[in-house]
Amino acid sequence: MSQTADLPSPPAAAPTTVDLKREYEEAGVREVLEELDRELIGLAPVKKRIRETAALLLVERARKRLGLAHETPTLHMSFTGNPGTGKTTVAMKMANLLHRLGYVRKGHLVSVTRDDLVGQYIGHTAPKTKEILKKAMGGVLFIDEAYYLYRPENERDYGQEAIEILLQIMENQRDDLVVILAGYADRMDKFFESNPGFRSRIAHHIDFPDYSDGELLRICDTMLERQNYTLSPEAREVLSRYIAERRTQPHFANARSIRNALDRARLRQANRLFEADLGPLDAAGLSRIEASDISVSRVFQQKPAPSAEKR
After folding, report:
1. How many angstroms separate the Cα of 154 from the Cα of each of 118, 151, 198?
2. Strands, DSSP E only, in the chain?
3. pLDDT in tens, 42-98
């Protein structure tokens, strides 16, 4: 046997170049960004920020491989915007993206609110918060309406205890957990003013705009297509008017309100078909939503119900 047979192999030479385009493809970044474009209508500024963040992470990973000075970027984020603008969906895509690039071990998303973190009596908050953090480790913790953690008007509130635990973990475990705080923009601003520790730990602030009327109509089309429903031309016109009117009313929640409206339209369509006793129905008859299924909505109660013939 050769005397050199038992000698250890020399270490592999460190790479001297990195092909960012190849890294982009092999890590699956393109796949995640294309999913984001495909599954979410509109939100151009949000998608732009996600692409920029992906580019930063890709370059930092490449710098590490080449032995250059590097520092793991601060990845904690703040998502601000009205309800139904896609914040949770984007958080899920971000968790997947961070996992593919090697910044989190698992890439799962744990979505919580104040009730999941804050206890109702002394000694209850710490174990609740720590249990949630344990579940989220290796992934992303998404805290919706995060400002409810802080209630200064209540001296006996235990939210501050949860905040202190979160801040400690966000600093000490930032290589194994990414925290995303979400909520209305104005309330989040006040929350950060009252809790500067959070502001100093969050590097990425992304604002989610409301959808336009046209984007909401496209969201309707996508939702209906997934459920194999169609709109008659008259129903589509009434739905357009519904969207314009609903956006001016209280408690509008963008895509969430649209989904609820379509659920009610389907309910009315089912009752209309059942009560009409039309005999055997084909797939088209069972899948078509008519103008009357939408025009009876309470949204139109303050005005005469829209007629498809009136233009």
Report:
1. 13, 6, 21
2. 77-81, 109-112, 140-144, 178-183, 204-208, 230-231, 288-289
3. 999 999 999 999 999 999 888 888 888 777 788 999 999 999 999 999 999 999 999
